[in-house]
Design brief:
mainly alpha; elongated; homotetramer; 73% helix
């Protein structure tokens, strides 16, 4: 479900309160710590394959964040735009974002 | 070229000094800062698509780090193993790492 | 723009006439020919890297088809569902499809 | 294990008999049939999400073929080049191929 405040238009028309904002921030903080951990591994001359395994884990975590943001955006901003007959532009923008991750 | 110290076997047989270690650490520090920047954007209720653009940028930066590590590993540890007739196992391990990124 | 017939509900409620259906079929036929070409290359013992380059080309072509289908689906079926207050389920299904390509 | 004939240099220096060549050709034929099946689904106006599921299946099948080719290439041509002190160039070429799939 979209929390009611999602995609509320702020003073500059582009502010969006993410649903489950605190959980999202927590995930991002964890990713930040994981990246710091990778630097630490390289600093300590850890075996390449072990470092790579950690890089893959961070990439998965980031992808999960991206998919959460995509879903929030679709349920919030895009659905709202569709209902307001502004869907065409919103969907074009969404597809650009999807393309970046689907590659 | 592989720097001569790459894949030097340490006391536990798995330590590897990455070539261009300082440059690699610098890149990882930059990635860490970018992730912190994304958290900041979510904190400030920035527009979803702008946040997603930054997540995609971090993912690209991480992929570049991973490919650098894969290349170092192949030029160092894997090539060394092939020369020492231990290539089969080293290549099997390499392919597992490649699979994780190629998906 | 979505062609008017897109996402027309058929007798079993799931038939969808793709916009630009002939162009899409043409692209798929080309992909089929490319895959046949790869088999031919393997048959003729062509150099691995050249075969891999062709596999990458086919993958790109398939990704382009997938993104076109995702866009048609979002503009058609999903937007229609949102307008009919059935958006939640349609978006959940869309996200599953996006996840498959975003990995 | 690499079959002995892998990466045998042909008259033009680039011919390679893939290990398990018949199995590889069989997989490619199956992929070709799957692509034809997708065209058939579009022809019959099948539901977008069902078509997308099939496109994802073909992409996975192609990725598996690519990874098999990458592994054969590394075990064959690349390892041979490393042993012959021509590894540097061979690994540079390998990394270009990996990058294409890791993106």
């Amino acid at each position: 479900m979209t929390s009611p405040e999602h995609c509320a238009t702020g003073h500059d028309g582009r502010h969006v309160v993410q649903p489950h904002k605190q959980a999202l921030l927590k995930r991002l903080n964890r990713v930040e710590g994981q990246v710091r951990g990778i630097a630490q591994m390289v600093q300590e001359d850890r075996y390449c394959v072990d470092v790579l395994t950690q890089v893959a884990a961070v990439r998965s975590a980031l992808d999960a964040v991206a998919l959460q943001l995509l879903e929030n955006h679709t349920r919030g901003c895009v659905a709202e735009a569709v209902r307001a007959e502004r869907g065409e532009e919103a969907i074009a923008e969404l597809m650009v974002a999807v393309k970046r991750f689907a590659r």
